[in-house]
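Re: beginner question about structure tokens

> Can someone show what the tokenized structure looks like for a real chain? I only ever see the sequence side.

Sure, here's an example I had lying around. Input first:
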Amino acid sequence: MIVRRFEPSDLPTLCEIDQSCFSPSIAYSREELASFISHRSSMTWIAEEDGKVVGFVVGSREAGRVGHIITIDVLDAWRRRGVGAALMEVAENWARKAKLELMVLETAEDNLSAQRFYEARGYRKVDKVDRYYSSELAAWVMVKRLK
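And the corresponding structure tokens:
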């Protein structure tokens, strides 16, 4: 597996992956995803295996030395195979090099496997936001102090 930077030709594939990873109430529209990726404070990395995109992460630099994982998406068949860990490592290293002190993300309240994944990487739940994703689904805000 290789991890590389986003190229504009990746956008259609990333949209398909996002739609397959999340329910319609959580998945980003093509326009939303393109906006996050193209923002001047954002970086996007792609995980590829044998030329096939198997996952991606979008991170951004926020005010106050804070990084934000906007989304991390890994195809179902590639989960628990190190893809997510490799993508998070690249994003966190980018944040460290940028002298950011914290990394923050949101994950659905009912996504227990994601919560365990982030907790294993040193993230801690700091706040619960009701109706974050839809009129019914809450999210946990999770934070990691970068070293």
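Each token stands for a local structural state, so reading them left to right follows the chain. Helices lie at 11-21, 30-38, 83-97, 112-120.
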